[in-house]
Here is the input.
Amino acid sequence: MASLTLRSAGYTHKACPVCGWRFFTFDGLDEHSAECRTQENGRRIAALNNTRRRRCDQCSLVSTVAGLGIHQKATGHTGWTEAA
Ligand SMILES: [Zn+2]
Ligand SMILES: [Zn+2]
Here is the structure.
């Protein structure tokens, strides 16, 4: 029982802090987590570039490009201004 607990505790220590993917060796985890963090940073930068806002000309609602599209479809509002 005790050895099983120890083993499972060690196992959780080898989980990637970014994506939670688990590894049997620390070498494997180190190699992965370096790569995983790089990918995660890339995703964050992509997300930042994706946060451009538009303001509805008719009710001044500010939303993402997609969000404003949904708003205007639902309300029938037209026209938008780029909002930084
Ligand atoms: Zn990962
Ligand atoms: Zn509107």
Summary: Residues 57 and 79 are 5 Å apart (CA to CA).
